[in-house]
Amino acid sequence: MAENAERVQLELTAMAHGGPALGRYQGQVFFVPYTMPGETALVQVETRKKGWARARLVEVLEPSPDRVVPGCPHFGPDACGGCQWQHIQYDAQLRYKADVVRDQLARLAGLGDVVVHPTRAVGKPWGYRNHVQLHAAPGSGLGYVAADGRGVYPISRCPIMHPLVAELFEELDIEMEELDRLGLRAAVHTSQQMLIFETANDEPFELAVDRPVSCVLMQSDGTPVILVGRDHLVERVGGHDYRISAGSFFQVNTAGAEALVQAVTDYISPRPHQTLLDLYAGVGVFSLALAGRVGQVLAVEDHPMAVADAHLNVQAAGLDNVQVLAGDAAETLNTLDQPIHLAIADPPRSGCGIDVVTGLAALKVERLVYVACDPAALARDAKALTAAGYHLAEVQPLDLFPQTYHIESVALFVKG
Hints:
By secondary structure, this protein is an alpha/beta fold.
């Protein structure tokens, strides 16, 4: 940090999307990570643009009553980038997340009167992550990407790891110069564990483990090579077992996955005669959960491993009314020529996009439940859906990522 950089005393007034708090000084909005509303802080300007600036916390002059001591020795602006909000009391984290969702909907979608419920806590605020990805820190072991985005910050422990994942981490004794990244994964309800290696040369290697832990080498083309055990885990959610391959997506918070299933089920209001479209279906969590409540489910997924998992999960559940469609969401929508009454969309962080919104509108879907992991993407798609004739009835934020700024939301859109 440059010694002659400008310093400013700032009052923080709100929490911004992406984690920092914001305040205003001489007509500019200042974004300051590791602060929170209600605080006065001395900050150092890092970047100035027209109308806004980004600053670094130097000293908290007047702390908020909601400021707490972080629960991890690796937390902070010069340390690990895995968490951003450990300095905020947990109930306040929940309040701020709902505020951010409201703000994004108002500013980006022009929807200032939407019902956004208080953020619902899910499971435990610590020890919840069933999957982490660690990077090799040259000469220093393993760690997360540093808070400043430059390099890797080595860690000795991580309090947001689920105990099954933390157990793997504590037992690691790996010296591999070619190791780039290591995934630690666990199925909470079956206690299955997995190590997922990514190396510079994709070459398989011998690995000895003392207990039943599956080990997989994930090659650069996405192909898994089994080193020990098998290439998948089995997790149980809502009475169904789900095969999850090493490369397939699954919620990192298992209690959160269960809460999502319940929230989606409540909002979708299924009836036995209806056809449900499950976009970005992954391994089929929503499809299996709702198959018994509708006439037919069409599950759309484009990731090959997830498609294979979904097929096997449907077969294992003995369901004959779920059809897995492999393909891009927007392209698949254009091929459907049957009545679609209900839809679920659980897109990646970038959101659905205009092509998917247009496709859903063309099908005249009556109710759409949108699962969003980014409130800005939700707001952008909400604006497009509103223009296409849908009404955003309500939003339920769920805290699947405590101690971080990440927000999961379930939103109900109804055809106007």
